[in-house]
């Protein structure tokens, strides 16, 4: 990681919170010259942006002159991870193409940026521009060329398995993330696979790709029981690549499946053990879509809602749906939301804390007289409609369209 790159990003106008987030992620891998090689899968994991959003923002930032992307081809015609160079020589903040009203997912494919403004003009007298007042020291951390690239190349050697699901298609970003989760334990009960880093992720990925879709599902099903059983007996597990290569789960005792399931149920809260259809976290995309939709509907009591501070009973009277959302969040963390709100989850985007976009949202809440929930201040990201406050009109149109479709179905 280069602190020079991070400092440069802090002064740049990226044109949106997601663009800024992507620049910070790139700076995390950059050397002192602004060069880095992160794969799209790594950037997706770091930013929690979709694959399409990563591609769109890389194109926008490249068009704006903030980054330069060099596509690299390896042996046998395969592509390696792009080399990306941050335009750290650009001292004047640049503004990439503005987001369309429909959000980041809808792009015109054309740059609205005047590239002539990207580089500041030289001094009139022809003098050499002044150097910065600090001495740039080389980063102690080398530029990171991700091991996912090796996995991608190995998986192509095995050939693609023709499956509909992206996560079951070797070579796809979703497949790479699935292999990484299998090793890191993200989303698994047993946590990280001990000493998995001693193996190459490419080696592990190749053996995962060699399995059939059913065998991959079995490997994931047996992962936690296997690791938990060995952990209880103080025995180190075999490397994950060998576990996959040997299909070791075929020789395991089925009783460890039940023990792992019992442990999983014991760790879950009552609300999580049996969640009804339509349940979602209040602070997730569907829950936040509900909250924004109800606030756009307006208060039940406008006079009461105009007060700067509302007690719990006053909030219930002024904003019944907002009160219900807050009560559900405080009590259970989630609730059952109508399917239309689940359908609108794709219209939401994560807005990082302490970002200019989140500050803009807070100002919009104040301007509209909406209640800013204190819980938002403790989150790393807050899900809001795509496109910032300017995207609320498109978000409201999407709600209305969903209502019309629901009425037609009835």
TrEMBL record:
Report the Pfam families cross-referenced here.
HTH_36
Which N-terminal residues, if any, form the signal peptide? none
Residues in a coiled coil are: none
The record's annotation in InterPro entries points to: WH-like_DNA-bd_sf
Please report the name of this protein according to its UniProt entry. Answer: Helix-turn-helix domain-containing protein
Task: Locate the compositionally biased regions of type Pro residues.
Answer: 119-135
Residue numbers spanned by region Disordered = 92-145, 150-169
């Amino acid at each position: 990681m280069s602190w020079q790159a991070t400092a440069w990003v802090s002064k740049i106008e990226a044109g949106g919170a997601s663009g800024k987030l992507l620049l910070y992620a790139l700076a995390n891998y950059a050397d002192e010259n602004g060069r880095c090689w992160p794969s799209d899968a790594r950037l997706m994991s770091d930013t929690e942006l979709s694959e399409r959003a990563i591609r769109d923002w890389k194109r926008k930032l490249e068009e704006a002159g903030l980054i330069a992307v060099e596509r690299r081809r390896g042996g046998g015609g395969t592509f390696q991870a792009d080399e990306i160079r941050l335009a750290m020589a650009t001292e004047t903040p640049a503004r990439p193409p503005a987001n369309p009203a429909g959000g980041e997912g809808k792009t015109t494919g054309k740059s609205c940026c005047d590239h002539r403004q990207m580089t500041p003009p030289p001094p009139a007298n022809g003098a050499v521009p002044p150097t910065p007042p600090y001495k740039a020291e080389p980063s102690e951390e080398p530029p990171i060329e991700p091991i996912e690239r090796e996995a991608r190349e190995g998986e192509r050697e095995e050939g693609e398995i023709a499956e509909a699901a992206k996560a079951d298609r070797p070579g796809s970003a979703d497949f790479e993330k699935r292999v990484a989760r299998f090793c890191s334990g993200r989303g698994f009960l047993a946590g990280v696979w001990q000493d998995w880093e001693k193996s190459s992720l490419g080696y592990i990925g190749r053996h995962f790709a060699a399995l059939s879709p059913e065998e991959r599902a079995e490997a994931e099903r047996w992962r936690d029981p296997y690791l938990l059983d060995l952990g209880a007996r103080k025995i180190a597990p075999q490397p994950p690549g060998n576990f996959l290569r040997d299909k070791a789960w075929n020789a395991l005792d089925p009783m460890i499946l039940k023990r792992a399931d019992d442990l999983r149920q014991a760790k879950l809260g009552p609300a999580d053990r049996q969640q009804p259809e339509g349940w979602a976290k209040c602070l997730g995309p569907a829950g936040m879509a509900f909250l924004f939709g109800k606030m756009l509907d307006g208060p039940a009591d406008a006079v009461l809602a105009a007060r700067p501070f509302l007690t719990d009973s006053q909030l219930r009277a002024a904003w019944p749906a907002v009160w219900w959302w807050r009560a559900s969040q405080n009590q259970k963390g989630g609730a059952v939301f109508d399917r239309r709100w689940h359908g609108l989850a794709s219209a939401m985007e994560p807005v990082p804390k302490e970002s200019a976009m989140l500050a803009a949202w807070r100002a919009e809440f104040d301007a509209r007289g909406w209640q800013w929930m204190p819980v938002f201040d403790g989150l790393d990201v807050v899900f809001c409609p795509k496109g910032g406050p300017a995207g609320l009109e498109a978000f409201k149109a999407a709600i209305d369209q969903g209502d019309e479709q629901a009425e037609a179905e009835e």
